[in-house]
Amino acid sequence: MWMEIICGLVIYKLVRRFFYDDEFSDVETSDSTALFSVAHRLEKLYGGKAYVGLRIPDADTASRQDIDVVLVTKGEIVVIAVKNLSGIVTVTSDGSWVCEGGKHHTTETYPDPLAEVKKQASVLESYLEQRGVTLLEGNLSCKVVIPNPSFRTIHAFPSEVITYEDWQQLKPASKSKLSGWVKGAFSTGKDMQESSHQKLNFILGTAPTWDRSYISSLLKFNLNIVRVGKSFGSS
């Protein structure tokens, strides 16, 4: 899984830099590429820092919760599950999503994404408390983002689920707080103190994820390719 995410980052940076200007052009690709595309756009719109691919220890299960994206701003922490679904999605009685069709013409069932991301948010909150950061009420929320234009459904999802149509409507935030989502989608919390905000970024920046030395080497390789591309483009 993590190898796919790392390779997705490299491919995403190269393709986006040299071939596309449209910020929606790269969502119909791999799931890993979609993760970085969503994280990049959220940072661009709302500032702050988006952490991708965290693996947060879960004390209840003695395992790790894989979290797609955590967006940290002055006013809020948002745990985000990215579902790059292509096809017609129906919701079963137990909350599971069934996706039919798509480019591979298959049927796949996914456990309730909203329930999963709420669990991830709870695990992250406990992890932060263990590291000395207690969040104020309203500072932590969770969302499910579906950035794929081929997503179709007849269901009305709760406000925590951001469908492709909603994803298109996002606008840049004001200087003081998040704004421009579908009403109420992101801006719900109070601003955090500067010291807490800095400590939070340090904790998430050092949280368990893929092998950091390996991704560092890949990013350096990516940078060298970009430099070659620049030289080629200017010649």
Automatic annotation (TrEMBL):
Domain NERD: residue ranges: 30-147
UniProt xrefs under InterPro entries: NERD
Superkingdom of the organism of origin: Eukaryota
Protein known as: Nuclease-related domain NERD
Annotated TM spans: none
Pfam family, any one: NERD
